[in-house]
Amino acid sequence: MALFKRKISLPMQVMIALVLGVVVGLLLYGHKDVANYIQPLGDIFLNLIKMIVIPVVFCSLALSISGVGESKTVGRYGLKTIVYFEIITTIAIALGVLFANLFKPGTGLDPNKLPKGDISKYESSAHAAEHSTYGNHFIDTIVNIIPTNFFEALAKGELLPIIFFAVFFGLGIAAIGEKGKPVKDFLGGVLEATFWMINKILKLAPLGVFAFICVTIMTFGASALIPLLKLVLVVVGAMVFFVVVVLGIVAKLVGTSVFDIIKVLKSEILLAFSTSSSEAVLPVMMQKMERFGSPKDITSFVIPIGYTFNLDGSALYQSIAALFVAQMYGIHLSLPEQLVLIFTLMITSKGMAAVPGTSIVVLLTTLGSMGLPAAGLALIIGVDRILDMVRTCVNVVGNALSTVVIAKWEGVFDKEQNKDYLNSI
């Protein structure tokens, strides 16, 4: 009887849901009408998570900055964070170019024989993003960091303007001293209540995972995967190499292990993989990285910014996909042209960070600027969901590691807390 009374852990529940989702998806492959009844279960779970992301980011960041209290310190955090993000995403883009040149996933494929997907919704987003107020997407992004209406930014869920206001507001709380204590108490209470909500919402994670995986398998099955299997293998191989080698070296340099981070975040990585949404794990990841040894003011500052500027998996995928399209159409890109591609992706990936379907939109814009046929993306849209699941996991691991990097750089990483936390798992 004791065996039946033993509670199944949440990670195990998620794993079981993942397997069941694959099995049921294969059994119901092709029945898109059934998917319409399963998909809402996943959407409800994801909406519940997204509902509390903004309150967690705003309250935790404002509280942390009010504790730091100095604009110079906050400015130093920001500068170091952006410098690190730019370096690591550039490495990811360059690694993608290297893998695409070594393994040539697009060579030998006939574009006329591949099934085409619908990319019209991404084309409309790309077209909208091309209308720049200042003639440059990156400059637009910098200007739009400052919200004209904070409540409008809250309603739209725009992270960068919310982060800007939260930092400024936190500095204001620190500046008024004792008068700011009621505000800090209020924000602290909201944060605690929000984390209580998160614990309740996460109990629905297995249901959400089952729905997302089931619908994914039902929608494309193996038919879309087989012709593009080489592309999938090259992308996945590059992602694994990036995490194990590149992030592994970075982790080693700051005195930790990328495998320790993966161990700590195994449930969150599994959830991010299943839902293709890194937002689904943001609040819990902030909590866990704080326990891992990175101070609260670092985690609450670095991770939300990383969700816009440090999408390593997405950057790596975009460079491989761009060269895949060129190879598929028999277009040779010289070394200088590939360097231009790297530079273009560095800019476009930052300048369109808030656009829905960012990876595809960035690729559409990049292909157009490089003179490559944007129609090639319609040929890989069938496997994009699978690749999105993988790149989301890399984004999560990369952002988690960035908190350790900045904490070490600032000399505030808590080694004892890190050791105790790892021993407790």
Automatic annotation (TrEMBL):
Pfam families linked to this entry: SDF (PF00375)
Top-level taxon in the UniProt lineage: Bacteria
Bilayer topology: Multi-pass membrane protein
Biological process terms in GO annotation: dicarboxylic acid transport
GO molecular function: symporter activity
Alphabetical keyword list: Cell membrane, Membrane, Symport, Transmembrane, Transmembrane helix, Transport
Cell compartment(s), UniProt: Cell membrane
Protein name: Glutamate:protein symporter
Organism: Staphylococcus carnosus
